[in-house]
Amino acid sequence: MISKPKSIFSTALNVLLPNYCRICDLFLENHELLCGECKSLVPRIQGKVCNRCGLPLSGKDKSKGACVKCDKNISELSSLHAFGIYEQALEKLVQQLKLHFDLNLTDHFAAKLSKIYIAKFGKEKKHDTLVTVPHHRFTLVKRGFDHLYNLGSALSFRLQIPYRAELLIKTKWTRPQHKKSLAQRKANISSNSFKVNGKENLDGMK
Hints:
two-stranded antiparallel sheet, two-stranded antiparallel ribbon, disordered N terminus, mainly alpha
């Protein structure tokens, strides 16, 4: 079968603004963000998960609903819901999101997160607001953009839930977390690293 020739506009667009796989840098002729092989490498979370940390459960933990770590430790969080395990291909995608102003990748993550939210809470149940963990102002100046603000805005649009970027303030600069262990991350973030904006009224909000 003879395929239809590409339009001049489409060809010119590929030359001027080539699309590439965000993981392996392979040139892509379509509008996908990942090539077929790299899509299969993104570690998705499937099956039963811990009702607190969101990680996959195995063995006896499935009957308890919580993993060994969460069963033994007290957390102030009611639950976490994740798209995938932060390793290999997904780790590289997250780093791309953080270090490059890529709104297509931002919307890709917003679409995945909105599906997780709807699967957990349904289309009708709405929380009052969305909040992202803020950067320190020095980090924003160095990076030049706020990927979490972009992600929060995109997710807010998809879920139709107000996004309030000003609700939390990071008051203390801390070293980057992504190469640290869990224990090092806890030590790196002190209890006074963040504060709630004093101008905000949180009564009755969820």
